[in-house]
Amino acid sequence: MSENSERLTIRLLIDNEIHYFVVPRSAEGIYRAAAERINKEFARYREHYKDLSLQKYNALVLTSLTVELLQEKKNTDTLPFLTSIEQLTSEIAETLGEVPSLENPKI
Question: How far apart are the first and last CA of the chain?
Fold first, then answer.
């Protein structure tokens, strides 16, 4: 497959403006979902805060989505460690012949 056929131009309506993006074919759904999420944030802020400037709405939406992204990244970063700890706890308890309970640890 040629490089050009692996990419496509999509048109997204974001905050009542049309924007064109050239994206990998496999990422089209993510871009469309992102546009939908952005539009929901604009609608939410416009409903709660009437008559702000476009610049202020942009700042609110960008801040809100970035905070959400960073929180999700933080949760994702710790998940592998928590999974490993749970697995090791189970293996240790199994070796010792105990049933592990992370809710009520014996410390």
Answer: 59
